[in-house]
Amino acid sequence: MAMRPAIRLMLVVGIASLAVACAMAKSTPGDDPRTESTATIVKWTDGKDAISINCREPGGCQTRAVAMCNSTGGNYTALKMDNMPTRGDAPAVRGPASVVIRCGS
């Protein structure tokens, strides 16, 4: 009888852990199914490393950029943007997008 509450607790903790893991964007290069994005490390025109992110929807690029720059508090600078919303045209349907970022302020 004492095993039932323990099993129930383990099940709840397992489901909660899975939900948290699925909710977080991947903070390392590669594919991320949650944000439907792919991030790679590239050399920018100044010879320094940058992060190139290709995504199915612009919101996925932003979420992935924040996750990739988690060590700097989610701060990043966009070096190049393609098909990303800007002030005044955010509601427009866009489709696939890409951004090249560098972490930090």
Quickly list its features.
105 residues, five-stranded antiparallel β-sheet, 2 helices
Average predicted confidence as pLDDT: 80
Number of helices: 2
Order of helices and strands: HEEEHEE
How far apart, in Å, are the first and last alpha carbons?
56 Å
Strand content: 25-35%
**Rg (C-alpha, Å):** 18 Å
Low-confidence stretches: 16-22
Q: How many beta strands in the DSSP annotation?
A: 5
Strand order of the largest sheet: 1-2-3-5-4
Secondary structure class reads alpha+beta
Helix content class: 25-40%
Q: What global shape is seen? A: globular
Structure characterization notes:
The protein is of the alpha+beta class. The chain has 2 helices and 5 strands. A 5-stranded antiparallel beta sheet has the order 1-2-3-5-4, covered by helices on one side. It is globular. 20% of the residues are buried.
Brief rundown of the structure:
The protein is of the alpha+beta class.
SSE map:
Blueprint: H1 3-23, E1 30-32, E2 37-43, E3 49-55, H2 58-68, E4 76-82, E5 97-103
Antiparallel strand pairs: 1-2, 2-3, 3-5, 4-5
